[in-house]
Specification:
There is one protein chain. The protein is α/β, with parallel strands linked by helices. The chain is built from nine helices and ten strands.
């Protein structure tokens, strides 16, 4: 598993970079490499003097905390950004991730041979030290799925002259939010991102790309919402997410206890039960009323993500698809 962590501006956090690095120190397993995308942050130098921009600060802060970093770059990045990436690469010795967007909402021309050659020269790297990430973005219909699968295959073909360390096609099909979902029942959402990858796999003539997705979230950062979300669970099954959203009737988040009990009693609860993942163990505790509190939105998302990762990795290992 190779997570890509995206940093985004947040006016409610005093120092996004230092907060991220502090949490990474506690959360990244020993020996793990953190692939970090700071492309959404302002590229101007954060402090006067030699402090550098976001990538330099990330590289230094993570290095001091003993966390290895693999920076994310785009072929459209400025010379200053690529220079900072080169410094981070030299410090961490973990290569780089080249992110190429084929998303419908972020159209980007594929880099040509000369642009890739210049990029590698600026980073002082060979292709074998570069992970290629083809980002297909949101997949909100079957038509878009098929179009993006064709674009992903075209991108893999166009970039095939280079011997990349790894290749990955990533997409996301979860809705932007749960607005409009019926309450008190389960609603299936097709995992079109997984369908897209399988179409790419069937049409791929070279080395098959790795599978990537955005978990149980939409690929684009949503606007901050106010208020408390209704109890919900985005539960991954082989072909769909089973989305449980329950109305808020009891005090606090106690309705999530009911939701969990219904989930555990449903046909979607796996045969491995609470052993499936850390998140499933927490859901089972809620269903059995073994927790004093049912958690909140952050907990539910974490439990759903834990289950999602367990299902996807198990399916890739045993079935060859997510």
């Amino acid at each position: 598993m190779r997570p890509v962590m995206e940093l985004v501006p947040d006016p409610d956090v005093r120092d996004v970079l230092e907060t991220f690095c502090d949490r990474a120190m506690d959360a990244v397993p020993k020996g793990g490499v953190l692939t970090v995308d700071s492309g959404a942050l302002p590229t101007t130098r954060v402090l006067e003097g030699e402090a550098g921009g976001p990538m330099v600060r990330l590289s230094e802060s993570l290095g001091l905390r003993g966390v290895a970093m693999c920076p994310v770059v785009r072929y459209t990045d400025s010379r200053d950004v690529l220079a900072e990436a080169s410094q981070a690469i030299a410090r961490h010795q973990s290569g780089v991730c080249l992110r190429v967007s084929i998303a419908a909402d972020v159209p980007e021309r594929l880099p040509d041979y000369g642009q890739i050659r210049e990029l590698l020269r600026a980073l002082h790297l060979d292709p074998e030290e570069v992970d290629l990430l083809i980002d297909a973005g949101p997949v909100n219909s079957s038509l878009v799925r098929d179009q993006l699968a064709d674009h992903a295959l075209a991108a893999l073909t166009a970039l095939s002259p280079w011997r990349w360390r790894r290749e990955c096609v990533a997409a996301g099909a979860f809705p932007a939010n749960l607005t409009g979902f019926p309450r008190g029942q389960v609603t299936p959402i097709a995992r079109r991102d997984a369908q897209l990858w399988r179409r790419v796999l069937s049409g791929c003539r070279g080395r098959p790309p790795d599978f990537g997705d955005f978990g149980v979230t939409h690929p684009r950062m949503p606007k901050k919402s106010r208020g408390t979300p209704d109890p919900n669970m985005r539960y991954t099954t082989p072909d769909a997410w089973q989305v449980f959203v329950y109305p808020r009737v009891r005090s606090g988040n106690d309705d999530f206890f009911t939701l969990s009990a219904d989930l555990v009693a449903s046909p979607y609860w796996p045969a491995t039960g609470a052993r499936t993942s850390w998140g499933d163990a927490r859901l089972n505790e809620c269903a059995m009323r073994q927790r004093s509190k049912a958690g909140g939105g952050t907990d539910w998302r974490a439990w759903a993500t834990s289950h999602h990762l367990a299902v996807v990795t198990a399916n890739l290992n045993t079935l060859g698809h997510p």
